[in-house]
Amino acid sequence: MKADALIVGGGLIGITTAHRLAKRGCSVVLVEANEDVGLGANFANGAMLVPSQTMPWNSPGILSTLLRSLVTQNSAVRIKPKAILSLLRWGLHFYKNSKPHLHELHTRRLLELALFSMDVFEEYYKEYADQFAAKKCGTIKIYRDQPNLEAQVSSNRHLSEVGLEWEELTPDQCVEAEPHLQALARQLAGGIRFSADVVADSQKFCQILRDDLVASGQIIQVNCQAKELLVSGDSVIGARTTTGDIWANNTILALGANTQKLAAKYARLILVRPVKGYSVTYDTTSVNDLPSYPVIDEGMHVGIVPINGKLRAVGIAEFAGYDNTLSPKIVEQLDRLSKSVYPNLAPMIDGCKRESWTGFRPMSADGLPYIGETSSKGLWINTGHGHLGWTLATGSAELLADLIMGKPTALDTSSYAITRLH
Asked: Which of 107, 160, 215, 388 is the most exposed place for a label (fewest CB within 10 A)?
């Protein structure tokens, strides 16, 4: 089998990259190891596209937070001791990039990419919004202490120069916007509304693009795992898969945290590690009065998102290597955090059926994604989006498609290059 482009990985990043290339007239083959697309890191993710949340996780002072997590049971960021060795090289660069000037620079670069991505996303929103539960409702971030609120407001003022849209709210205005916060009102210092944020079902989005690609004659192979790359000289010319060899002019790896497993020899400069995120989805379809806004509690590090008639709680960052075990203790913690945001809904939450989930966020050491060609001609990478996979998916795919086609890109991609210095 031969194609212009072989995409390895059928998650958000892979399927969107395939779609943007197909729109440019490329013949595309996408292979996905699971039984369908969209079943990996995006399956039960936060369901939010959030240009408002582009600060990398390695903020100044992150080292003390990580060290405390080794001995604190209920930390929002956790490191399993068995994962420490695999984090040493990555962690050194993660820490180096937590310097204030670098953190601010990378926040701006991520915001630029996020805003561009939202422009590309608009195309899909106009055509398919009702099919993947997309809603331009914005988000509200709440704060229980004044210093953190003031720090975020100060940061937002600087990011307004890049295009961030935001509005500071008093506690009363938070409750006016989302009445279910009434029980929390006395604990609130205030909040911030980000009107450009969007709620949408990323798994359904993947399925829509899958169907569109197949309808246009492109090939998607599920239950198909890429085992190794096919090489000729210094070029990658395809991949050997469990269903046979696939030859391609361009091979794109969109495997998230698993990218280096397949391309260790060809992409040594990539510094990406898996970080487990958790979600609990409560079946509230029979409940009439639900929160209408996605609410992010900055202090508790939890988001509560209404999606498809259900409530989804998302949070926790766990460095556990590739151990995908669903921790009952962390699920319980996320459940408690949900009730701390909406104590009035605790009895309803307790009575709901729930689905717990965990997935790997592909976290780069500097917080920026990798979008571009490796030192091996014909091998391209699109990974490292961390907690912003849904937010950055369409923009990253658009940039990579233009790079592959040799066309000018809408943004300077040097900050996302595989060969960038960390």
From this structure: 215
Contact 202, 57 (CB under 8 A): no
Q: Is 419 exposed, middle or buried (0-12, 13-18, 19+ CB in 10 A)?
A: exposed
Task: Give the DSSP H or E segment for 15.
Answer: helix 12-23
CB 301 within 8 A of CB 276: no
Distance CA 316, CA 77 (A): 6
State pLDDT tens for residues 120-164: 999 999 999 999 999 999 999 999 999 999 999 999 999 999 999
249-299 residue pLDDT tens: 999 999 999 998 898 887 778 999 999 999 999 999 888 889 999 999 998
**b or e along 97-116 (b: 16 or more beta carbons within 10 Å of the residue's beta carbon)?**
bbeeebbbbbbbbbbbbbbb
Sign of the Cα torsion 334, 338, 343, 347 reads negative
d(CA 415, CA 181): 40
Measure the CA–CA gap between 236 and 224, rounded to whole angstroms.
19
Write the single-letter amino acid at 415.
S
User: Strands 244-253 and 272-282: what pairing?
Assistant: unpaired
Cα torsion angle, 71, 74, 75, 79, sign: positive
Q: How many residues does the chain have?
A: 422
Q: Token digits for 62?
A: 């992150």
Per-residue pLDDT of 207-248, as tens digits, reads 999 999 999 999 999 999 999 999 999 999 999 999 999 999
Q: What are phi and psi of 136, to 5 degrees?
A: -90, 75
Note the pTM of the prediction, 2 decimals: 0.96
Greatest Cα pair distance in the chain: 67
At position 267, the amino acid (one-letter code) is A
Task: Report, in angstroms and rounded to the nearest whole number, the Rg of the chain calculated over CA atoms.
Answer: 21
Q: What is the mean pLDDT of residues 21-31?
A: 98
Q: How far apart are CA 130 and CA 248, in angstroms?
A: 35
Partners of 49 in beta bridges:
198
How many Å apart are CA 280 and CA 263, to the nearest integer? Answer: 33
At 77, give phi and psi (nearest 5°): -120, 125
Distances (CA, A) of 92 to 57, 67, 89, 113, 220: 14, 14, 5, 25, 39
